[in-house]
């Protein structure tokens, strides 16, 4: 999962101005405001700064925010680490997903709308499902939901098991070729990334020759969710998004000419109840999001799960004695070390959350990872316990109308991927050199070296 380090594509002067404005509005200006607030002691600002300067989750700040109240008002927004309040925010019809300067009034709003006109389609750029609201969200989501139902995903289990076994066979063959099974292998690129990208690529009809490209695009675009990117980081991310959009446009055109029995072919041909198809931009945004989200977060789930199970051998021993607990173990991994740490909402009208008034335009940060450790919901929340009866009450898949449509697929891949790995290599040992990803909203491992026996 190495970062996309290709040199950014040169842009015309006017587009460079637009790109600079996008960076200034969405990264440079917020970063300056947040740093100033953090120096003044603001809890939310301190949380953002801490997440940028360390790969460790700032659990102490989660707790301070929770103690400050169910919905804490910071200098520039609201923030919550309370499980019931996060759930309320995610379900609130008066809240829309994301934060968008283009919807503001005055000079900043005009500048935001002007600069966004040529932005590459990304996970937080309309018409992405992550930031689209009803009725468009309902219409677009309905067209992709069928393939991700629990029943449909269970039909993919056998193929997922086959893919996992093939990847584990390749690890064994590599060890034999090297002449030793004690040489470390990096589990992230060799297993955690390849399992979900192979599964989602088959679902979407992406040929095997293009899967390395998809991994590269996903890795390069992953920081697009983060706040406060430097100018070089921002340019690199937008370049990755632009190249991904170019590849995806060509791939979708191929599906128009030569359709197959895959989700992208079905999306190209899909019509809603009124006979209306997705627009070109909706099709690219939806297909891109399903493809990227179909493996990026699952890479994190697998790597986080491997680390937790390795570091808690008593829990791994319990799973070996009682393999029926594997689904619950995946829920506990999702609860304790979620692949996505937080999400944001903006009030579209004056509303109330947990008794606190949130004015129109007010931004609320919902700390999913904080809610997952709420001691009023989860006993001894910092302990990894695969026998926890209510682990599935975590909010790692968000909630409300933006609940992750790939949740069933991620759960199945997590169970298959983790169980198959530890069954094949019961003496697996992680080695020094593990490193977390640089992303601040997506949480997982960049490298995870391990010896297999």
Automatic annotation (TrEMBL):
SUPFAM superfamilies: Cytochrome P450. Pfam families: p450. Coiled coil: none annotated. The keyword Cell cycle does not apply. Keywords: Heme, Iron, Metal-binding, Monooxygenase, Oxidoreductase. Transmembrane segments: none annotated. This is Cytochrome P450. Belongs to the cytochrome P450 family. It comes from Nocardioides plantarum. InterPro entries: Cyt_P450, Cyt_P450_B, Cyt_P450_CS, Cyt_P450_sf. The keyword Heme applies.
